[in-house]
Amino acid sequence: MTRITVTIFLALLSFLSHLLILTTQQEQHPDTVHPNCSIGNGTYTDTSPYHNNLITLLSNFTSNTTDDYGFYNYSYGQNPNTVYASGLCRGDVTPDVCRSCLKNAARLLPQNCPNQKEAFLYYDLCIFQYSSSSMFGIYVDPDFYYAFNNPESAADADQYTDALDRLMQVLKTNAADGGSDRKVAAGNSSTLSSGQTVHGLAQCTPDLTEQECDDCLLKGISDIPLCCQNKVGGRVIKRNCNLRFEKVRFYDPTVIDPIQVPLPPSTDNSPSQGPPDAPNVPSSGEGKSNRSRIIIIVAVVIGAFIILLILILIYFAYRKSKKTIDNEAEKKDEEEIKPDDSLQFDFETIRAATDNFSTANKLGQGGFGPVYKGKLRDRQEVAVKRLSMNSGQGDLEFKNEVLLMAKLQHRNLVRLLGFCLEGIERLLIYEYLPNRSLDYVLFDPIQRTRLNWEVRYKIIVGIARGILYLHEDSRLRIIHRDLKASNILLDKELNPKIADFGMARLFDIDQTQSNTSKIVGTYGYMAPEYALHGQISTKLDVFSFGILVLEIISGQNNSNVIDEENIQDLLSFVWKNWREGTTSNIVDPVISSGSRDEITRCIHIALLCVQENVGDRPIMASVEVMLNSYSSSLPLPSRPPCLMNFSSTLEMQPREENEGEQVRNSAQEAQK
């Protein structure tokens, strides 16, 4: 009964407190606008291409209603007049309120900062900025500083400052630990004796890494004394992050689950004293009653704090334990594979299933060896990849593919059924897909008639979903590095499945880029920054996806000369017709029906993916949104690289590698 009474009492108290806070917010914190027009990057004229691109981008900035996590980031136009814009809403506002705030910001900022190429605006509920330089995934201008305070001074400044510092350190860590959609945390902390409570919120743009977010907020916390020393409230706003604190709760706790920072342990070892008697007590009975109520309230508060502290300790202990276990498991997997016995096949079993690897059962020749069709004793059909001894794929590549495929589970990835390691033999056993590979169907004059537009669009979307899983949704971020038509297999319903992970590269989940001196893959599908400089990122697979989409739409192999008269490769041919508005020339004549708008949009998306500048290419999450949303406008693509010139540049690469790694390293140092 007592527990129920306390619960009801606390719920009622919370409701009244929340109602009071909302009322106070409306009275004390009206929606104010704070522009900053002195960031830099020069000016533009009203007749310039930059101004036209800016107007177009701002008018369509919030048109994509699928972005409901409070962060918008788009670009429009071609270099050197490309406009980049981003908007971040406070973590507790609804999508409708967010879009309304950003819409107002996009309207007001050019008015407040006329002709400035780079400008920044802070609302109470959102931050909006645009620039002539790319901002996505970049920790922009760490020294940028913009802050103001609540003029009211704290009653007990030292204790209030201590409580604020404890709160901000916890919020910083929790916000940085957020995912790729939201990096925000809110909560409160109390002083030791005066009973004051400080509420705070810390937030970063979700495109930052965990370390970058932590650094940005740490810099913001160090700026608090410069603006808000001994004040009950203040705000520090930076380009990529912001923080705020007040003596009242200003955020919605139903949207952001608040963190209550526990009090530090008391250093007072003296016996606890009872609460002092109140003056002017009319009667001893009433005084005892008041003291009893106070004791009950104090006991409830102390009990709640103890329970909360225990839960927090259990939570962090669980996270630490789980992280340790996961790290040890991943390290063990990468250093040595100890496969499950159920996945390991006997070599004689596979030899019998493939009729001793007979030519009649050969399905094709991969980069690392032939692939055979087999039938196991239980009549199950399988595809067996037999790695050749001189293929260049040794134990490391073999373990890499086994490790990856065993962990990956997605409808658009080929499923690994098992493997065989016996002597010099290395075999991978996959599910058998009767329609073989995409290149077999797409580039065959007879087979390609099976691919109407509906099927081709299904293949495009399926490949995109498979790549997105590798980049964002699997336990490790995986760069395939060899996406091409022959590595896309088709099941009996012509659903696509990505295959061949022998060249895949593993990234940490927060890693975005790496370099290699060993270039592997297939010319024509390689992004220029990878083929020429060994730069690896998810944008490498995005480039290959763009080539695949253009091949699927045109029915043409990118390695062929498309226009004999003008000697054009696929990219040059597509770009010329795109610029001239003759996209019908790009489409495979076999496609007799299908939405022309949908086909044109897919060509547009593919051209965005194959842009030469890495930063201009979209990520696969954006590509999937583009493929499934027809209401949002697409930015204009810039000119893609010429594959024919590009391939002739690459002809020196294999010879350099045969002459030794030192030659390649010297060339790269010279380029630097």
Describe the structure concisely.
With 672 residues, the protein is α+β, with helices and mostly antiparallel strands.
What's the topology here?
Layout: H1 2-28, E1 34-43, H2 49-59, E2 71-76, E3 83-89, H3 95-112, E4 116-122, E5 126-131, E6 146-153, H4 157-176, E7 183-190, E8 197-204, H5 210-228, E9 231-237, E10 241-246, E11 259-260, H6 284-335, H7 347-353, E12 362-366, E13 369-375, E14 381-386, H8 395-407, E15 416-422, E16 425-431, H9 438-442, H10 453-473, E17 477-479, E18 488-490, E19 496-498, E20 505-507, E21 513-515, H11 528-533, E22 535-537, H12 538-554, H13 570-580, H14 596-609, H15 620-628, H16 643-650, H17 652-659, H18 661-671
Parallel strand pairs: 7-11
Antiparallel strand pairs: 1-4, 2-3, 3-5, 4-5, 6-9, 7-8, 8-10, 9-10, 12-13, 13-14, 14-16, 15-16, 17-20, 18-19, 21-22
Helix pairs in contact: 4-5, 10-12, 10-15, 12-14, 17-18
